[in-house]
Amino acid sequence: MNGVHDMGGMTCYGPVKPEENEPIFHAAWEKRVFAMTMLGMGQLDTLDAFRHAIERMDPTHYLSSTYYEHWLAALEALAVEKGVLTPEELATGVAQETGKRTEGPLPPEAIPAVVQGGAPCNRTEGRLTPRFSVGDQVQARNLNPTGHTRLPRYVRGKNGSIVQVHGTFVYPDTNAHGQGEQPQPLYSVRFTAQELWGPDAAATDDLYIDLWEDYLDPA
Amino acid sequence: MSDDHTHGHSAHDAPPNPYLEKHTTPEQTAALEKRVQALESLLVAKGLVSSETLDKLVETYENDLGPINGATVVARAWVDPAYKERLLKDATTAIAELGFSGLQGEHMMVVENTPDTHNLVVCTLCSCYPWPVLGLPPAWFKDAAYRSRSVVDPRGVLRDFGLELDESTAVKVWDSSAEIRYMVLPERPAGTEDMSEEELTALVSRDSMIGVTKVQPPAA
User: Fold this and answer.
1) ipTM score for this prediction
2) Which of residues 98 through 157 in chain A touch B, CB cutoff 8 A?
3) Quick one: fold of A137-218?
4) Is the overall model pTM greater than 0.90, yes or no?
């Protein structure tokens, strides 16, 4: 969706303001939201659905809230949408009934394996034969889906070239919406700064972005 | 772009915007603490998570993961040309050689700064960041100013960090739009020829591996 999260190319947000000696978390609640999301989200839906839940936030709330408040909003939204919590439970903080899960929650001893193992998104099934090769000229499609996509507005309709074929990866546009992983080739695509931003951009500069095959046409 | 100065309007002139004031007053923080405590008790009651496991995960990211991991990778690449070659060819495997892997680093790429090329990493759509090597991202990496402007005005963003690049230097911006995570291999500064790998590791800053600064030579 063409949401406020799709920020690339805007110049209205002022300078970058690094914080001296920044702590990893700024408040105790941020730690809990981080951990609850990391451990609970996978039981609710996919990472892509989680990102889309953030994108569905009210845009003014999105801009005025910190990063972990985005996570909190998405976690609460998905917990209700997936029927794990009722809106009443969320509003009151009181569980009306305990969970029906047969497995217990992950024990602390499992954390090192979860953190170090990760959750790879490349696949050996799906669309395995890439349509494009390194050096091919491509055009990012002018798509404006109402759901989740990782094709930002600032590259749509622009011409670039394939610089790397990453392999076959889970497709976020379907995986965010309960339509399965539908893996397909993913490419690193180079756009010149002048193609994206016009003749005033530096002729020396380039932008590299990872785009799925269904985002691309031959140029 | 580079004509900020001639037009007299830089990003620094952007007017204050009430929508950009983050909700971090004591009252707002207290309300969030209460709301999050309630959510945790609900998710525990439903059997999704246990508080002990949440504690363990937080401890892991507070204590075991951070830019020291990435700095270790960089220093090794500086002293070991064969390692550097492996790192630039297959970063995920080369980084795992040093013991770093996992969540948000499953598919790594390392891009090399040279005297004529400077790399900068951003995630315009959210805040994707290579956790196993850099830890959790700083707030500025996740905020609108960096995410929006890095692609259209990378040289201006670098000036926000005090780095003025020569016009002849090529800037490569990497937008982490998929599940590939990027880390910059900064240039080894002059005057470090006699330093040990351990001393070099201590020299490498987080920001240099995001690409917003260069590694500074050791203080004389």
Assistant:
1) 0.97
2) 98-99, 101, 103-108, 110-112, 114-122, 150-152, 154
3) SH3 type barrels. (2.30.30)
4) yes
